[in-house]
Structure formats: structure tokens, C-alpha cells
Design brief:
Structural class: alpha/beta
Order of helices and strands: EHEHEHEHEEHEHEHHEEHHH
CATH class of the largest domain: Alpha Beta
Distance between the termini: 91 Å
CATH architecture of the largest domain: Alpha-Beta Complex
Oligomer: single chain
Strand order of the largest sheet: 3-2-1-4-8-5-9-7
Shape: globular
Helix content: 40-55%
CATH topology of the largest domain: Spore Coat Polysaccharide Biosynthesis Protein SpsA, Chain A
Strand content: 5-15%
Length: 314
């Protein structure tokens, strides 16, 4: 019997990476009710490869203009099963992982089930020590002897709004979503690659979120988040934080629990923004030094000494 899951596979000019990803997809493709491929105008043979490999599994092919979360939403809108799984390229899940997510979702009647991904380097040759917030929560679950749990509203708000600009959702390829909930609350498309985090912020006050400490999928690091421009990270954090604040404020007028969590969030965010502001200021200062003293520190010291010497001579 097939799992009542619509698997969404968004693709765009990723033929080389898709080849490896499809080796994982075919291990569970026959287990799900439907596979929906959403192509955004690929020109490198990506669509042809996906069609060739997944044709025998009855995959539906949709065409949607470029846009990461726009493609996700297009596939979700076309889903006919009770549950949605988003199979992002190079974030493979196991057949047992999919079954486990469905079991947790059904037992807790959740809108989304979140699991911690196994963290691997970008070519999949070795695991890495990097962690997402979900990995840290999984560690605490293990210490407490918990395997899975439906989070309370306060726990949900704290976990979905407390790690900005990251989020507990982590890699959506490690999660399972109720299709009707996603169709009612699609992923925001104006938060660059943080649409997952923004979605969590928007739905935090009323989503039923379950968490399992079982790693159902892998996440291959394609970028180094820590190496991004701190000024850009500050701007992203501020946009997400303002979204969280507006979302909680709208509920706080008639919901004491949300009012309490709004107070927590404002205090928590004030501390976090001090750090982001400091990092951004340090980055700006380094850029200032680089532009003003392009020759480096030695040249800077030489020029400073020369200027002081001129002052003394005059």
C-alpha cells in the first residue's frame, strides 16, 4: 500500500547534482502516492533526465517560472495526497525515513513533522560537525529519553522564532507537511533562501508541530552560511525578526500565551541584534580599512608613521 504522500521535486539546471539525487529518489518513488516534478525552464538536460528516470513511476511534470519557493508552492498547489514531502536536490531521504515521518505525523495529528538531518560535506564523502538548530534539539531529546513529541504552543513559537535568521525547520527535505496546511499557508517568496524560516515564523502561533530525534535524511552543505556578509545577515535577521514581531503582536491582543511569548521574543531579539550589529560594524570597519589602506597593514603603518613624521618636521 502506497504512503499517502505527494513528493515534490523542484529542479532547475542541476543535471550533474540531480543524477546523484535520483539514485536516492528511486529507492522510495514506488512507495508514495504521487511524484510531482516542477521544472523552472532548465536548459542543461535536467528535465530530460528527471523525465527519463521517473517516467516509470508515473511522475507528473509541471513547468513554473524560476523561483525557489515559487516552484515549491506550484508543486504543493497541485498535490492530491494528504501529506507533502519536498525532495530538494541533493538532500536525500531514506524509505524508512519517509515512513517514520508519516507515522509521527499521524500519531500526533501534526501540521508538520521536523527531523534533524545528518550533516555531510558538499560532495557527500564525509559527515561534518556543523549543526542546525534541529540537531541541537535532537541532542536534548536524546538526553531526556524522548523519541518524538508534539511541541506546545510556547515551545513551537520559541523554536520557530528563536534562531533567526536560521530556523528549526532546517532542511525541509527532512520534514513532512500536511498538504492542506501548506496549501492554505504557502512558503513566502520574498526572503531569499530563508523562505523555510519565514514560513515557520508566520505559522508559529497556530501550527501543530511535532519533532522527532530520528534523522530521516541527509543535508549536503553547498554553502557556508557563516561566511556570508554579516551586514547581509543582519538585514536578513531584522526582516525575519520584524515578521515574527508582527505575527505575535497580531495574536497577543486576544491570546495571553502569545503575549507572553512576544515579551520573550522582544527581550531575546534585543540581545541577538546586539551581536549582529557588532559583527556588521566590524565588517564595515574592515572594509573601510581595506579601501583606505589598500596596501595592507604594513603600508598603513608606514603611511601613518610618515604622516606623523611630516607633522613633527613642520
Amino acid at each position: 500500500m502506497k504512503l499517502p504522500i505527494s513528493a515534490i521535486l523542484p529542479i532547475y539546471n542541476c543535471k550533474g547534482r540531480l543524477e546523484r539525487h535520483l539514485r536516492s529518489v528511486v529507492t522510495w518513488a514506488s512507495n508514495v502516492s504521487e511524484i510531482i516534478v516542477v521544472d523552472s525552464g532548465s536548459t542543461d538536460g535536467t528535465l530530460e533526465l528527471a523525465t527519463e528516470v521517473l517516467f516509470s513511476f508515473g511522475a507528473k511534470i509541471l513547468h513554473n517560472p524560476p523561483g525557489l519557493y515559487q516552484s515549491w508552492n506550484a508543486g504543493i498547489a497541485a498535490a492530491n495526497s494528504p501529506w507533502c514531502y519536498i525532495s530538494t536536490v541533493e538532500d536525500p531521504i531514506t524509505p524508512d525515513g519517509l515512513s517514520h515521518l508519516l507515522d509521527v505525523a499521524s500519531r500526533h495529528d501534526a501540521d508538520v513533522v521536523i527531523s534533524p538531518p545528518e550533516m555531510w560535506n558538499n560532495d557527500g564523502s564525509a559527515s561534518v560537525k556543523d549543526k542546525m538548530p534541529s540537531n541541537y534539539l535532537a541532542d536534548s531529546f536524546l538526553k531526556a529519553g524522548l523519541s518524538d513529541k508534539l511541541l506546545s504552543r510556547s515551545e513551537t513559537i520559541a523554536n520557530l522564532c528563536g534562531f533567526l535568521p536560521q530556523g528549526l525547520l532546517g532542511s525541509s527535505a527532512s520534514n513532512l507537511y500536511r498538504a492542506s496546511f501548506l496549501q492554505k499557508h504557502p512558503f513566502p517568496t520574498d526572503f531569499a533562501h530563508c523562505g523555510d524560516t519565514a514560513w515557520g515564523v508566520y505559522v508559529a502561533p497556530y501550527a501543530k508541530v511535532a519533532f522527532t530525534n530520528f534523522s530521516c535524511a541527509r543535508f549536503y552543505n553547498q554553502t557556508r552560511f557563516q561566511a556570508e556578509d554579516p551586514i547581509q545577515q543582519l538585514a536578513r535577521h531584522q526582516k525575519l525578526a520584524e515578521t515574527a514581531r508582527k505575527t505575535l503582536t497580531a495574536q497577543a491582543t486576544h491570546d495571553m500565551e502569545c503575549a507572553t511569548m512576544l515579551g520573550w521574543f522582544n527581550a531575546h531579539d534585543a540581545t541577538i541584534q546586539i551581536l549582529w550589529n557588532w559583527l556588521a560594524q566590524q565588517h564595515e570597519y574592515q572594509l573601510h580599512l581595506k579601501s583606505k589602506y589598500e596596501g595592507g597593514v604594513i603600508q598603513y603603518l608606514f603611511r601613518a608613521f610618515r604622516d606623523e613624521w611630516k607633522k613633527l618636521r613642520n
